[in-house]
Amino acid sequence: MTASRVCSFSELEQDAALRVVVDGVPIAVVRDGNDEVHAIGDVCTHGDISLSEGFVEGDTLECWAHGSAFSLRTGKPLNLPAYEPVPVYAVQIDGDDVLIDPNVKKEI
Length: 108
Prior knowledge:
With 108 residues, the chain is an all-beta fold. The chain has a single domain, classed as Rieske [2Fe-2S] iron-sulphur domain (Rieske Iron-sulfur Protein). It is 0% helix and 45% strand. The chain contains no helices and nine strands. It is globular and about 40 Å long.
């Protein structure tokens, strides 16, 4: 499988998440304050909540429902109640296109 275009870089707001679905896999795409683009699983491992509706702060994405924050770099939860990580996907930028393959996990 090859990476799919999920959005343009210019569509991503800084310090905000965008929900995309690639091959049936929900992914939260985040452009952080340093203009780095991250892609993590969009489902909170604590409560089956869409993480893309949460809050971006630094290199974390916080679930709006119960407050668990996940590292955008590793997918690991940084506080309770979540204790299971979310997947982290490799992101490619090609010109203004953001590409993600949900079958390729980011090397951590």
